[in-house]
Amino acid sequence: xxxxxxxxxxxxxxxxxxIAHSLSPVLHNAWLEAAGIDGVYVPLEVEEARFxxxxxxxxxxxxxxxxxxxxxxxxxxxxxxxxxxxxxxAQAANLLVFRDGRITADNTDGLGLLVAFAEQAPxxxxxxxxxxxxxxxxxARGAAGxxxxxxxxxxxxxxxxxxxxxxxxxxxxLKAFDLRDAEAAFEGAQAVINATSAGLADSExxxxxxxxxxxxxxxxxxxxxxxxxxxxxxxxxxxxxxVDGLAMLIGQAIPSFEAIYGEQPPAGVGVRALALKxxxx
Length: 281
Ligand code: NAP
Prior knowledge:
Blueprint: E1 10-16, H1 24-35, E2 39-45, H2 51-59, E3 65-68, H3 73-79, E4 82-83, H4 85-90, E5 95-99, E6 102-106, H5 109-120, E7 131-134, H6 138-149, E8 155-159, H7 162-172, E9 175-178, H8 182-186, E10 191-194, E11 218-221, H9 230-237, E12 242-243, H10 245-261, H11 271-278
Bound molecules: NADP nicotinamide-adenine-dinucleotide phosphate (NAP).
């Protein structure tokens, strides 16, 4: 069925650089169509130096909302008039909601991570034991906040640049480890989450002693291109249960859609199958 765009259509989208391969338009437009909402969701590529100008321009329009991806998540938080605690704690925003010329920032990445665990590792209980987060950027911060909110008793942050892990650990009362000491961090962990950008297609891969984790430890990778990263493949070869980054992407899109369009996305749309098709899988 073809949707008709009218003067009343609510317009939202996702901004990044690059943006052509974003899956967010696939997810949001499928939900909009299934829900019969008069809305459209578009990809927007913006020059890196012109993000501030771009946001100020949107402020003057009837724009409904914006998801934000690399490299603009920190800029998005700075451009907002106010921010949810989740975005302040992550020092990054993946969602800007526009209302009456004012912009509110949020970070739904951590919520998406918990949705991904609930879907692909249903036996996992955040309250049951230590969780290891690899990385100390916005993704890691969002994850740490979500696990803290979910009652996780101990979070270990492991990063290549130790001082960044220490800064995050001091802020949120976590434990900091150097990436070279990952084996010690893995001891007794009930989940390990890769929130580094290592593993992205064509970038460096992580080579860590995952065998030091308990047999039931859930291993998750935020990277979803490729869907089966070398890190997840290593975990699966060791027999560890895994959670993929696409489940997190879909998980963060659910509260984003609700914030932008004012209702939950409809159930049963099969957005994962659509996203897998868009990934060529
Ligand atoms: P970021 O702020 O740029 O942080 C990148 C982190 O990766 C830093 O901790 C950095 O360590 C580390 N790192 C980069 N290359 C590394 C390498 N070769 N070895 C070890 N550590 C390395 O990025 P971000 O926004 O947190 O995003 C991190 C990843 O999560 C990205 O791949 C992003 O696409 C993904 N992500 C996915 C979702 C989803 O929905 N699936 C949501 C959010 C983020 P240093 O501090 O030492 O530089």
